[in-house]
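Milestone 3.1: sequence recovery, worked example.
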């Protein structure tokens, strides 16, 4: 391996570490700031939900395509991942695969089995994000779980929606829970709908 290649790899490693540090520090500072500003309000209150759990740079990328027109068919709203989220999954996945299989400096860190398992996880994540699709209408919502199984819940059984503090919203129903990705086209309209639905439940 040439000297120039070592320099490039070192720079990429330092850059990745710096980005990770910024993400962690930003997340901690945001949580501390929110707790100071709203000591009596949980971070998961519906009224304060939003796409706020990524660092500013990654959030801007993930929000690419967020304002595109939402797809509707026969009275059903179809929410799919934003273009930015797809870019992040493909870009980060491709970088990790390059480090695993195309860069000899990282190969000693993982055994053959470890590299294969990591590759499988990356392919699964990319496929899951690419194929993800949540649908809702005036009757209920349908979305896939982590095993690609479609789960449907009726609004009449809806209890509450919460932010898990990372990359998902968790919808609680009388007969179960559903995890919903945050970076979906049409998610802001959906959150408004959820807030109205919670208010209706409180009044009734």
């Amino acid at each position: 391996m040439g000297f120039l290649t070592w320099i490039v790899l070192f720079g990429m490693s330092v850059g990745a570490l710096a980005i990770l540090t910024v993400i962690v520090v930003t997340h901690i500072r945001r949580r501390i700031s929110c707790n100071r500003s709203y000591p009596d309000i949980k971070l998961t209150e519906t009224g304060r939900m939003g796409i706020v759990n990524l660092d500013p740079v990654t959030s801007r990328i993930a929000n690419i395509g967020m304002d595109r027109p939402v797809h509707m068919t026969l009275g059903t709203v179809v929410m799919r991942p934003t273009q930015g989220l797809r870019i992040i999954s493909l870009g980060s996945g491709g970088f990790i695969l390059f480090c695993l299989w195309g860069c000899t400096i990282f190969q000693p860190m993982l055994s053959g089995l470890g590299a294969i398992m990591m590759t499988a996880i990356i392919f699964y994540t990319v496929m899951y994000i690419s194929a993800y699709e949540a649908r809702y209408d005036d009757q209920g919502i349908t979305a896939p779980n982590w095993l690609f199984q479609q789960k449907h819940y009726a609004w009449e059984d809806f209890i509450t929606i919460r932010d898990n503090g990372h990359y998902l919203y968790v919808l609680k129903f009388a007969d179960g829970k559903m995890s919903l990705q945050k970076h979906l086209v049409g998610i802001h309209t959906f959150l408004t709908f959820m807030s109205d639905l919670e208010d209706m439940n409180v009044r009734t």
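The radius of gyration is 20 Å. Strands lie at 71-73, 76-79, 134-136, 140-144, 150-154, 158-163, 168-173, 176-181.
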